[in-house]
Design a protein that fits this description.
The chain is mainly α and about 60 residues long. It has 3 helices and 2 strands. A two-stranded antiparallel sheet has the order 1-2. Strand 1 and strand 2 form a beta hairpin. Helix 1 crosses helix 2 and helix 1 packs across helix 3.
């Protein structure tokens, strides 16, 4: 059983706050693929998508 990490939670919150994976990566001083990977792993662990990824807008899913 995997347990969500502080890094995953911090990344989730920055994406939510900034509305962008790219902006969250910049704010966290991380490559964008690392941000995507953290959220992908978190979504896998929880069994739900957390974000609706649009071209310009990121929104939370109901589970998010």
């Amino acid at each position: 059983m995997n347990i969500m990490t502080l890094e995953q939670i911090e990344t989730f919150l920055e994406i939510y706050r900034l509305g962008s994976f790219h902006k969250a990566a910049e704010q966290l001083f991380l490559p964008q693929p690392t941000v995507s990977n953290r959220i992908g792993q978190l979504e896998k662990e929880l069994g739900h998508a957390l974000f609706i990824r649009g071209k310009k807008v990121i929104q939370l899913t109901e589970e998010g």
